[in-house]
Amino acid sequence: MSISVLYGRDINKDFTMEFNFATRKIGKPGTAWDGNLSVPSDSAQKYSWQIPEHVVAATGMSTVLDDRLIHSMGKSSPEILAAKHGIVGQVVCGVLYPDSGSLEASVRTLLENGLKTIPYGGGSSVNGSLMPYVGHETVSIDMKNFSSIHIGKNFVRAGSGVTGSDLEAALWKAGYTCGNFPESFRYSTVGGWVATGAVGQESNQYGGIRDIALSVSLLTSSGRIEDINVPSQSAGITALDISLGSAGSTGIITDVTLKTFRIPRRRYYHSYFFRSFEDGLRALQESEKPPTVARLSDETETEFAIRSNAAGVVQKLFRAYLDVRGMGNGAILIVVNNEAPWKMGTSGSVYSGGIPAKMWERDRYLRPGLANLLWKAGYIPDTLETAANWEYLPDLYRDVRESFSEMKKQYDFNGIIMAHISHLYRSGACIYFTFVLSTVFKREIETLDAVRDGIIKAFLRNHGAITHHHGMGALFRPYLDGSHMSLMKRIRDPMYGGVPTTPC
Ligand SMILES: Cc1cc2nc3c(=O)[nH]c(=O)nc-3n(C[C@H](O)[C@H](O)[C@H](O)COP(=O)(O)OP(=O)(O)OC[C@H]3O[C@@H](n4cnc5c(N)ncnc54)[C@H](O)[C@@H]3O)c2cc1C
Predict the structure, then answer these.
(1) What's the chain's average pLDDT?
(2) pLDDT tens for each residue of 190-228
(3) Where are the domains of the chain?
């Protein structure tokens, strides 16, 4: 039995040029792999559970192993790497595909029979929150049949299983957008966005899901909590309040109401070069009105962007222009702004036209296809992100890179790390690190764990968040402080079967 565990069913863009450049830069790959988790048929037996027949019949759950495996993991690199090595952790004992007519009765049957639940949206989680907790019999509740969309005046009510692309397709026909565009937009769902506290690429204008969501309907083990649909309220704690960032631990979100906005009439594209990433950081900090999208890449990521998007002569001309302007090997800032052109307020940058921003937009949901190529060739790609106040960002950036170099020496591998600023706030920004490990021939899992641990500890040492938008899950729980653990424990629903913050 073999199932694909990489991200994306239809990411077909050819990233050959970028891939070739990347592999030249980062050295030899480890062992090649087809991207599938293979479970020998004679070991499938060890994942079987004795669910009473009447429960299976009453709920209509699937107990097919493929289905259960795919619903027991997300798309984080540690989970993908474990799958590469044929390692399967705890597996859910069944998968339910309820609709609004069957959900409550099915969940009641599960609870009466001592089973726990984990809600499942698009499966694009990168924090380990889809792993069931060892010791529980847990059923994954796949929300894909919660697919209704009702468009109101400046709001939309959507079933929690609606994907970003389906939601926006419906809204665009009516002249609206909800403004949340995570890179996983094609697969991630409205319910998953709320449960992870997702932030889309245009957050400078629209905000993250915490700003866009207005209310939810939440099914808990003690009944349904239905927020009323109002623009704002102060009537105590709402179901939305306990759902945001919950990782599904407070109940199953069935419907979400989101703000909507008129679609922009026109988009403007710009790019700027800075002598260094730190110069760019200073300029962004001073910018009073950030554009819809601003992505400032460090020098390494900038080199990747130029090498992979501009071929031959164009690349040489572009480089020559930057050299003449004193910006060779600098840092690029890509800008997309709705409705009006945007201008960099401070001096110290060189304008480099709209094409780089247009190229970024063209590939904005396809970039994970490059990670798939790297995985298959035998590299280990990964990403971690955080947010910190402006004053801490330069040191945080340096510390993360130093930690990566230290790990290279300690674990004896090659690799590369790069970063960009992706979401701007008054007090600071989100910084997103991409790293690729190569020539890790032995101890791949241990090496990746150590690199991630080093980076997350550097975040925390430099006053950064554990994560800015990837949400809480088993992979980040070791870094959560005691008071937040006990807060999450207080609001956890007893029906939750994911890895808890504290022992049950
Ligand atoms: C390539 C890639 C790019 C990404 N880019 C971004 C990005 O730009 N911005 C960003 O914020 N994130 C990003 N992510 C992370 C991920 O897409 C988000 O966390 C997303 O919100 C998860 O949504 P999902 O529907 O896939 O949820 P799932 O992965 O299915 O679930 C995630 C968590 O939410 C819970 N959950 C899901 N549905 C419900 C529900 N109905 N009720 C209660 N709990 C529920 C699950 O139990 C789980 O704990 C990216 C991930 C990948 C793989």
Answers:
(1) 92
(2) 999 999 999 999 999 999 999 999 999 999 999 999 999
(3) 1-38+367-471, 45-79+88-263, 267-362
Name the CATH code of domain 267-362 (choices 3.50.50.60, 3.30.70.3450, 3.90.550.10, 3.40.1090.10). Answer: 3.30.70.3450
3-state class (DSSP) for residue 331 = strand
| Ligand 1 atom closest to residue 129's alpha carbon, by position in its atom list | 49
CATH topology of domain 45-79+88-263: 3.30.465
Q: Is 466 exposed, middle or buried (0-12, 13-18, 19+ CB in 10 A)?
A: buried
Is 45-79+88-263's fold the same as 267-362's? no
- pLDDT, tens digit, for every residue of 452-477? 999 999 999 999 999 999 999 999 99
CATH class given for the domain over 1-38+367-471? alpha beta
Site of tokens 């996983």: 184
As a whole number, mean pLDDT of residues 34-39 equals 92
Region 348-352 average pLDDT: 90
Is residue 78 in contact with ligand 1, taking CB distance under 6 Å? no
Residue of 375, 373, 400 lying closest to 385 (CA atoms): 400
User: Does residue 504 register a pLDDT over 60?
Assistant: no
Q: Which of 99-113, 210-224, 433-447 has the lowest mean pLDDT?
A: 433-447
116 lines ligand 1 (CB under 6 A): no
Tell which residue, 156, 161, 141, has the closest CA to residue 229. Answer: 156
Percentage with pLDDT > 70 across the chain: 95
From CA 333, how far away is CA 335, in angstroms rounded?
A: 6
* Ligand 1 atom showing the smallest separation from residue 469 Cα: 11
Q: Which of 419, 428, 483 is nearest to 455 (CA)?
A: 419
Contacts of 317 (CB under 8 A, 6+ apart): none
Taken in order 290, 291, 292, 298, the sign of the CA dihedral is: negative
Cβ of residue 132 lying under 6 Å from some atom of ligand 1: no
Judge contact between 299 and 277, C-beta under 8 A. Answer: yes
Q: Is 164 in the pocket of ligand 1 (CB under 6 A)?
A: no
